[in-house]
Amino acid sequence: MTVLLLILSVIAGVFLGKHFGKKEKLAKNLLILSAGFLITICLNEVFPEVYTSSAGSSLGIFVIAGVLLQMILEALTKGFEHGHFHHHGEHNILPMALMVGLFIHAFIEGIPLANEEHELSPYLLGIVFHNLPISFILGAFLFNRKGESKSSSSSYPSLLIVALFALASPMGMLLGNYFDPNLQPYFLAIVGGIFLHISSVIIFESNKNHNIDWVKIGLVVLGVSLALIMHLFHHH
Fold it and tell me: pTM for the whole thing?
C-alpha cells in the first residue's frame, strides 16, 4: 500500500502537469495548499516524534542539516520544489541535474517510512501530498517544453526521470529496512528540516507589491486544516 501510494502520487501529478501544465496559477495553488499541509505535518507530527525520542535534545543539528541539504539540492533543481522553473531559461535546468536533485530529495524522504507503524501515517500522507505539486511541475516542464517533439523516442529521457522520481522514495524505504530502528529520529529530523525549508519558503515568499493575498492565505489555512483533521483521526 505504501509503495503504491508513493508511485501513484507521482504518476498522477505528472499526468496532470502534462495536460494542465500551462495553467501556472493551478500549479502555484497546489504548491501553496501542499505547503500548508506539509508544515503542519512537520510541526504537529514529525518534530514531536523527533524531540520526544531518547536523543531528542541533540537532534536540532540534524534538523538544521536537513535545511542545509535542501538548499544544496536546490542548486541542482533550481527551485522546482517552489515552482520556480518558469523563472529560468530552458537551458538553465538540465534533466540530469533535475534527476539527481529530485532523486536524492525523494530517496531521503523514503528512509523513515521503513519504521512507520501505520500504513496511512501522517508522515506518508505528507509525502504523498508533497509529491503531487512537484510531479505536476515536473510533468509540465518535461512534456510541455518549447520544441519538445511528440515522438515516443524523444520522451524516453523524460519518462526515465519520472520513473526514477517515482521509485526514489520506495527505494529509500527499502534501504531504511537495513538501518537500526534507533536511527529513525535522526532521519526524521533531517526530513523535518527539508519539509520545513520547502514549506516555509513557499508560504512566506513575498507577494507582488507585498499586498495581502487572501487566496494564498485561504489555501494555507485549508492545507493546515486538512492536516489537523488527519491528526485528530490518527492514533499514536
Answer: 0.85
